[in-house]
Amino acid sequence: MTTTITAFEDSPDEGQGLARDMRVRWALEEVGQPYDVRLVSFAEMKEPAHRALHPFGQIPTYEEGDLVLFESGAIIFHIAERHAGLLPDDANARARAIAWMFAALNTVEPPIVELEQAPYLERDRSWYEERLVLLEDRVRVRLDDLAHRLGDADWLDGGFSAGDLMMVMVLRRLDGTDILREYPNLAAYVARGEARPAYKRAFDDQLAVFTGRRPAGG
Amino acid sequence: MTTTITAFEDSPDEGQGLARDMRVRWALEEVGQPYDVRLVSFAEMKEPAHRALHPFGQIPTYEEGDLVLFESGAIIFHIAERHAGLLPDDANARARAIAWMFAALNTVEPPIVELEQAPYLERDRSWYEERLVLLEDRVRVRLDDLAHRLGDADWLDGGFSAGDLMMVMVLRRLDGTDILREYPNLAAYVARGEARPAYKRAFDDQLAVFTGRRPAGG
After folding, report:
1. Is the pTM of this model over 0.90?
2. Which end of chain B has the least Cβ crowding within 10 Å, N or C?
3. Beta-carbon neighbour count of residue B5 at 10 Å?
4. CB B121: neighbour CB atoms within 10 A?
5. Using the beta-carbon criterion (under 8 Å), do A121 and B127 form an inter-chain contact?
């Protein structure tokens, strides 16, 4: 059964791998599942045909036979549930790995997205510079706790899991700021994720969409 | 095996049921599982003993035998996976219900939290009034899409699921604003959730913590 995901035709990051299709690509590479990619333009994303797949008109979507999914968290969980490599076998460890997926998406990512979006939404407002300081401090509140919990471990709870995949991708959204440098163990954690062969394959494939060096898809 | 969750000893909403323990209480009531509640003060939440349960020093936590979980999304998913009543049996419908859980937490809730938090974080800043308009419009972008997808259906995808439970709770965070009144089908959807007997039991139990009319717990 062919799996097809959607990705930006013209990504705002031009191949830095910060768009949410990168998360799904990485998960599919970790479990060794092939997939096709359909590129969509910003205009197409808001059309009824795409909204039928994604109610909020975003990417990525995931199509596999009759199943259509949206939300990178849900897509990665679906992949992790069906293929070995992203969730531990032990029931309690599995539940904790899922908790880290939710923590990445609901506790750590929101203040990072606010910081990331501020230049696009508010750069020309009078308050921009002053508010940036607040936004950075809100991110630090989360990173302080995350760095404390990670300590000198390689991953958040035992072996690499979908929770780490999601957390690494969320922390990567701080690229372009210096905040992660204040947390050497978190910077090393992100680098550890980026060094995984599956990550590199996924990264190269999403980059190829922009450089044209390789066909889209994994 | 006893299940114990944590909740605010002094909730900022004084029993309106907006704190995240309400979500977990509701889920446990839907599946008919008894639970104990341990109340924690704001000071206790930041202490090492609580942080061992919750890395970010928040509520709710969930303890069941050897298992300790944090993040309301993960806790509700854990409950939904083990007990009938919150996820459909059909595999594809189950995956879509999980997608709505993630959509509630990662796509709909973040702009609502920003709007909710602004008075606490920025009321004394010069930009507060002007920025409030931006924040409300960001919420409307999500609600436009959500209202369109829901249409005149009772629930987001077939029968009531954990995805609806989470979305109703996220939309309830708009209490105190008039935004939901602009979306009659979403307001009716929230009312439909609040009318469920399991919701009412959970609501009354969290309220009793503040009124003292009943002992804490379900």
Report:
1. yes
2. N
3. 24
4. 13
5. no
